[in-house]
């Protein structure tokens, strides 16, 4: 009888240990999904202890922003690592348990099998990122859906679109704010470098003896609908008598552009900020901000709607092709501006006398996308999830996503 009692106690002890082990294991699985790699497996036990010691480990007290990989796994692409206004940006995946946000470029899950097999804490914010237009993603990379980012995998979106959770424009504070700070001095310095070249036989209704040149650098000639359309529009401008210096892969003269002196590059009055997509929401790239504005050139815009440009650009800073019935009408207007320094300088009025809207834009552009993400993350902004990143990203105008070259109404 005594022996039976001892065995009963032993069996109860073993069963209790098994039940406890099962409970601990189930709790572990419910809190996070196990990683595939051994190093991450080892991290889970230590991370579990850290989470217990720290208490609630919300995104607001984690300061790492983990970029899962470089776009297309190309090391020279993507955001830089380092300080991001209170956060630290990194590509080091060992920081995954300590990341408040994990940013995925749309190409980053190409090599991953779903459902997600790596570590994920319920308090982490998973962010979908893109700086490419849907037109390019569909027709250039043949991605017609973002299935791996669907089913509530993503919490926030971070793109150039103003309806993103995190607005990440191409413009950065080093462009617009620096220009406004320098004001008239910046304008005088830039305009002093503009030159004119002789042109004759243009059959214009206004007197002209000299005209400035227009610059365009492009290497995407026919990949997309927008690529083809902008080439045709530029050809029409040249045919109408507008001198345009065209460089890049489309014209087999990349090296010639690199050989231009700094004075030559600064001499252009206008830049063709022609995007490779038409009417994609808010799609304004470095063509507008760096190639034109930063160099003191008036951007001549084709691609984004005029409404979108007015929303994102300084007041009165650009010329839009939609305001002209034909390329010939635009060419005539640009040639006129070259003869009238007062009229040309009006396009820089936003620098000397910025209106309220322009000043508000300048404040907006102080923060880059990752800096804005950090601020939102640390402020513990309410979390949510997107049922479908595909639905968000491809929710565009027919003009934007179509492959048909003719203009679609």
UniProtKB/TrEMBL annotation:
Residue stretches making up the Fucosyltransferase C-terminal domain: 214-379
User: Where does the Fucosyltransferase N-terminal domain start and stop, copy by copy?
Assistant: 61-170
**EC numbers for this chain:** 2.4.1.-
> Where found?
Golgi apparatus, Golgi stack membrane; Membrane
Top-rank EC class of the record's enzyme: transferase
Give TM segment ranges: 7-25
* One Pfam family linked to the record: Glyco_tran_10_N
Which keywords belong to this entry?
Glycoprotein, Glycosyltransferase, Golgi apparatus, Membrane, Signal-anchor, Transferase, Transmembrane, Transmembrane helix
Protein name per Swiss-Prot or TrEMBL: Fucosyltransferase
């Amino acid at each position: 009888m005594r022996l039976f009692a001892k065995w009963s106690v032993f069996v109860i002890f073993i069963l209790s240990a098994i039940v406890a082990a099962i409970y601990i294991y189930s709790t572990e699985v419910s809190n996070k999904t196990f990683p595939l790699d051994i190093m991450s497996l080892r991290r889970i036990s230590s991370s579990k202890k850290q989470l217990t010691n720290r208490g609630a480990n919300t995104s607001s007290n984690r300061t790492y922003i983990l970029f899962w990989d470089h776009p297309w796994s190309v090391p020279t692409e993507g955001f830089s690592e380092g300080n991001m206004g209170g956060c630290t940006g990194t590509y080091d995946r060992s920081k995954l348990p300590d990341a408040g946000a994990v940013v995925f470029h749309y190409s980053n899950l190409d090599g991953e099998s779903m459902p997600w097999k790596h570590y994920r804490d319920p308090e982490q914010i998973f962010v979908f990122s893109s700086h490419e237009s849907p037109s390019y993603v569909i027709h250039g990379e043949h991605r017609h859906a973002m299935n791996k980012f669907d089913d509530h995998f993503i919490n926030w979106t971070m793109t150039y679109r103003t309806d993103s959770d995190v607005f990440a424009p191409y413009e950065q504070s080093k462009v617009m704010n620096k220009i406004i700070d320098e004001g008239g001095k910046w304008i005088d310095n830039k305009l002093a470098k503009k030159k004119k070249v002789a042109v004759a036989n243009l059959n214009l209704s206004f007197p002209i003896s000299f005209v400035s040149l227009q610059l365009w650098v492009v290497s995407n000639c026919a990949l997309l609908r927008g690529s083809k359309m902008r080439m045709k529009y530029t050809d029409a401008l040249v045919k109408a008598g507008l001198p345009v210096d065209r460089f890049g892969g489309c014209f087999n003269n990349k090296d010639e552009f690199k050989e231009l002196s700094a004075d030559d590059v600064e001499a252009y009055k206008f830049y063709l900020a022609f995007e490779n997509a038409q009417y994609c929401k808010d799609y304004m790239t470095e063509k507008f901000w760096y190639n034109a504005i930063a160099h003191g050139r008036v951007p001549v815009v084709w691609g984004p709607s005029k409404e979108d440009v007015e929303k994102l650009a300084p007041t009165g800073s650009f010329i839009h092709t939609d305001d002209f019935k034909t390329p010939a009408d635009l060419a005539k207007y640009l040639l006129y501006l070259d003869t009238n320094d007062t009229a040309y300088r009006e396009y820089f009025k936003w620098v000397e006398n910025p209106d309220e809207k322009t000043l508000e834009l300048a404040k907006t552009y102080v923060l880059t996308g990752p800096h804005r993400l950090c601020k939102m993350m640390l402020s513990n902004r309410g979390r949510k999830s997107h049922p479908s990143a595909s639905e968000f990203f491809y929710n565009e105008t027919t003009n934007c996503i179509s492959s048909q070259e003719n203009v679609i109404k």
